[in-house]
Amino acid sequence: MSVQGKTVIVTGSNSGIGLGIAREMAGAGGHVVLNSFSDTEDDHQLAKDMAAEFGTDVRYIKADMSKGEECRALIEQAGACDILINNAGIQHVAPLQDFSTAKWDAIIAINLSSSFHTTAAALPMMRKAGWGRVINIASAHGLTASPYKSAYVAAKHGIVGLTKVTALETAQEPITANAICPGYVLTPLIDEQIPDTMKEYNMSREDVIKNVLLERQPSKEFATVEQLGGTALYLCSDAAAQVTGTTISVDGGWTAL
């Protein structure tokens, strides 16, 4: 599958899932815009290294996804947007009565409102180009819930709803909107947590992964960033031209329970 010459903007993409998807897009010939809230030499070097590795144009643009005006400025600064992948997100876990207002506001802003702002800015560009793809990285928590994750679950359910609205408003155009709903994905952040969890539960690495981290994931295997990138590439293909307003679960059977 190819996105040769398409401009691909991936929010929250200097690490983890976003970076993994961005790499798959660059490998398929896309002109990739990386993004995060920082603006370091490492951020820009990451873009240069990806460009050299894949032989395509890769840029890094700073934008704080908690601020609507910066979300829209990211799209404008990119100059074009054929494929928008809304990935930026944060997490906080606490019981409802202890969940701070500041944490709630930040999660809703970054995990939900940012996608509204970027999509609103990108759709005119897609319409002008005569083609477009909006791919929202939701979560298994966009389809089900867990305790202590009120803001995250609310935001991810909101992303699924926003995806459907976007799809309906573009249904008679060559633009689609879909949500990918990952379960647990093995990223460096998750991998770093495993040794501490092993000590906490006095378990082996394998037992921690299967019985603690992947307790709700029936496959007992992590999804990978490459699998998510491959799913995104499929949604950009001609084969998916009539796939819109959907959620695609990459969760090892979690939401089948």
Helix-strand blueprint:
Layout: E1 7-10, H1 16-27, E2 31-36, H2 41-54, E3 58-62, H3 68-78, E4 83-86, H4 101-129, E5 132-137, H5 150-169, E6 175-182, H6 188-201, H7 205-213, H8 225-236, E7 247-250
Parallel strand pairs: 1-2, 1-4, 2-3, 4-5, 5-6, 6-7
Helix pairs in contact: 1-8, 3-4, 4-5, 6-7
Task: Write structural notes for this entry.
The structure is a single chain. This protein has two domains: 213 residues, Rossmann fold (3-Layer(aba) Sandwich), CATH 3.40.50.720; 37 residues, no CATH class. Helix 5 links the parallel strand 5 and strand 6. The protein is built from eight helices and seven strands. Helix content is 47%, strand content 14%. Strands 3-2-1-4-5-6-7 form a seven-stranded parallel sheet, with helices on both faces. The relative contact order is 0.14. It is α/β, with parallel strands linked by helices and 257 residues long.
Any descriptors?
Rossmann fold, 257 residues, 7-stranded parallel sheet, 2 domains, globular, 8 helices, alpha/beta
